[in-house]
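ZP: hey, is the Phenylacetyl coenzyme A complex queued? I don't see it on the tracker
AM: it wasn't, my bad. submitting now with these inputs:
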Amino acid sequence: MNKDKFLAYVQAEQKVEPKDVMPDDYRKLLVRQISQHAHSEVVGMLPEANWITRAPSLRRKMALMAKIQDEAGHGLYLYAAAETLNNGEVPADRDTTYHDMLSGKAKYSSIFNYPALSWADIGAIGWLVDGAAIMNQVMLMGNSYGPYSRAMVRICKEESFHQRQGYEILMTLCRGTKEQKEMAQDALNRFWWPALMMFGPNDDASPNSQKSMAYRVKRESNDALRQRFVDVTVEQAEFLGLKIPDDKLRWNEETKHYEFGELPWDEFMEVLQGNGPCNKKRLETKRKAQREHAWVKEAAMAYAAKQRLAV
Ligand code: FAQ
């Protein structure tokens, strides 16, 4: 199939499946995005895992553990979806994609390079980080690659629960003591701008967007999704009695959207280059786990091989 025919096919909302013929740059674009998305899910477990032993009650601990376990599952669906694109020329097997993350070659979401310093941060991660992730992922349910699109349907169902558990943590803190409310405000102050940066660079500085939208991988632009996130989140902050840390934030009656200040793009670039507050720590934690738990993988592989021989 030539590229024009392929474009017409996906633009007519037809799904592409693993054995279908597809252009190389479509395959590469998907492997890049799906595997980076998978890395985000598994690195994203780390800031929250830091709070499991310190959750303030058994109920909170159970909900947090369930959420973190869900993120591991999301990573699994996504690595499996990426693997369906492996064709030798464009390597996408799990070991290769995972090692690209461990070596620092492949990216994961910038947001997970920020620390979770207080219990309120766990609320802010659920509310803002999962909230931003859902805004982006609802659009991805309609992407043109079948395995990725189906993985997103399952992931989105679980993300809604994550967002609510975060918002509920903050609601409890905001109705608590003065110190608890201050802790919630401090978490919002630190997570607001990094959450907005999750949507990626502005549209005019986004090198992949045009191709991705033509191939119906991305269905909406970085800026359009960021604007929608701001529009729904400002009102949620008002309900909590918290102030968004942006002096330029105001409702525009004509556009029916909130206007907001310029994002700290220098900080975004630093984080992408590996110089965020936790980049080195996150990668070292994952590398250490890979080294120290290699024997578990080897034992599982040996057991699977033995089972196959027995059949
Ligand atoms: N962080 O040309 P664009 C979650 C990179 S899941 C790091 O606009 P694109 C769940 C981008 O890769 C969160 N890098 O790129 C959870 C590209 O570099 P490359 C993750 C970023 O792909 C919650 C370059 O900048 N979600 O949170 C970021 O068209 C709680 C130029 O950018 C997904 O991955 C960033 N924020 O659009 C888990 C969703 N933004 O690859 C645990 C799927 C951009 O050319 C706890 N991904 N870059 O070297 C996407 O929708 C897209 O890839 C975007 C970026 C929108 C992230």
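AM: back. The two ends are 40 Å apart (CA to CA).
ZP: great, adding it to the tracker
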